[in-house]
Amino acid sequence: MTAPTARRVEPSVEVPISVTVNGEAVEAVVPARQLLADFLREELRLTGTHVGCEQGICGACTINLDGEPVRSCIMLAAQVDGSVITTVEGLSSEGLSPLQQAFKDNHGLQCGFCTPGFLMTLSTVDPEDYPGEEGIREAISGNLCRCTGYGGILQAVRTVWNRPKDA
Amino acid sequence: MKPPPFAYCRPHSLDEALEFLAEHGDEARPLAGGQSLVPMLNHRLARPAVLVDIGAIGDLQRMDRNESGWVIGATVTQRRVERDGTEGCDLLRLAMPFIGHRQIRARGTVGGSIAHADPAAELPAVALTLGATMVAASPDGEREIPAAAFFAGPYMNSLEDGEVLSHVIFPTVPPTTRCSFREFARRKGDFAVAGVAAAVDFEDGSVTAASLTAFAVGANPVRLTSAEAAVAGRHLDEAALTDSAEAAAAEIEPWDDIHGSSQYRRQLVAALLRRALQEVAP
Fold first, then answer.
1. Which residues on chain A are in Cβ contact (under 8 Å) with B1?
2. CA distances from residue B203 to B119, B224, B276 in whole angstroms, order as listed
3. Which residue, of A32, B132, B186, B276, has the fewest CB within 10 Å?
4. How many angstroms separate the CA atoms of B267 and B276, rounded?
5. Which residues of chain B have a CB within 8 Å of the CB of A79?
6. Could you report the per-residue pLDDT of A29-65, keeping only the tens digit for each?
């Protein structure tokens, strides 16, 4: 076992964190019980990350954490010390990203509540891990659209992943 | 739905984590990936006073192969196993895509899932099928617990107070062993209504050893010993598949719940086992 690298830090109800969010370094002291989604929305005012079910089912709160899509409603803000996060606000510095444009062009959103989650999942995964039409469905299987507007979402992904429907 | 108040710490060594857990006793819970525990906090089904986050402990993130098999640290994520694979231990890799969704596997851990002992979870079934060994760490040292003795009921394990699951040893299997993992869920990524795992070894087309497990049919995954006996020494022809599937349906005692009746689960296990055996047949 490795020796402790630092002096023992006792359990606390307030936790200091350093995290990079959308390219900017953030230092904060967060309540231990604060969910990551709430930290992003309420402390950083990044309200593009939506909170739907708060139990890890719907995917609306999906963000990019250190290169993986994760659900920010079932993570604590305290757990992201040292991490790099991208939220939907960080997808593009100017205008819409190609993925966002494809959603717009293909009616890939109706009420739009689930959209940030879909965008963050799709912008984080590697399309090569999800081949074919079936792969697109697999890639978005962790995000729910209660408007059931999946047809437009699928078409948007086919467009941006350059994947004709009958291929 | 927000977690109740608690104190949090994120020690960088296992010794320190064990100290905190010992000091706070029943009031403390270890936090691995949090994909089960944080939802439980949100629902206030769990109200620990202290959360000891074991996610920053380097020792618990090892994943390497030695003579006994794959040694997988408790906080190795399911995504990492899925991505990197476990050569010689195919069943583990085959089970990964069934665990929640990509977003869950990115955070969910091998040790967390096993220690949580959800009756419908995939990793406990894999551990039981392969005869994995759980290594529990405590201030007194390490203790090995065979998978068959680890699960102690729904959401219950046999860890003692002050112990943490530090890593799991999944034995590698001979190249002649063929594996299959199957489950049925109403939607992709949901918890299984029923599932089976199979690791079967052959010689000249006949079964020399079969380890067959059903899960989501009771408190914990169960070995299907009658179904195993039904295929012993046989070619996996139609008659053998039928005998094994019928034996499995008869030997389990599935529960009824909103997702399926006991009778439905018996039929599911029979159908899934038949397909698994067809898949592994040489």
1. 54-55
2. 33, 21, 18
3. B186
4. 14
5. 10, 31, 34, 53, 55
6. 999 999 999 999 999 999 999 999 999 999 999 999 9
Position of tokens 């390219």?
A: A23
Strands B177-184 and B133-138: unpaired
Question: Chain A residues within 8 A (CB-CB) of chain B?
Answer: 1-6, 8-13, 15, 31-33, 35, 38, 54-56, 59, 62, 65, 68-71, 73-76, 78-79, 81, 121, 125, 138-139, 141-142
Q: Answer yes or no: do B5 and A62 touch at CB < 8 A.
A: no
Contact A59 B103 (CB under 8 A): yes
A114: its two tokens: 């689930």
Give the number of other Cβ atoms within 10 Å of residue B24's Cβ: 18
How many Å apart are CA A2 and CA B57, to the nearest integer? 9
**Higher model confidence: residue A7 or residue B52?**
B52
- Establish whether this prediction's ipTM goes over 0.85: yes
* Chain-chain contact of B34 with A138 (C-beta, under 8 angstroms): no
Torsion of CA B106, A146, B119, B93, to 10 degrees: -40
What angle separates helix A115-124 from helix A98-105, to the nearest 10 degrees? 130
B174: contact with A, CB 8 A cutoff: no
A99-140 confidence digits (pLDDT tens): 999 999 999 999 999 999 999 999 999 999 999 999 999 999
- Contact of B156 with chain A, judged by CB distance below 8 Å, is answered with no
B102 contacts in chain A (CB < 8 Å): 69, 121, 125, 139, 142
Tell me the C-alpha distance between B46 and B279, whole Å: 41
| Shortest Cα–Cα distance, B107 to chain A (Å) | 7
Sign of CA dihedral A37, A38, A44, A46: positive
Residue B204: CA count within 13 A, CB half-sphere: 1
pTM, full prediction: 0.95
In order of their start, the domains of chain A are: 14-90 (3.10.20.30), 98-160 (1.10.150.120)
B240: closest CA of chain A, how far (Å): 34
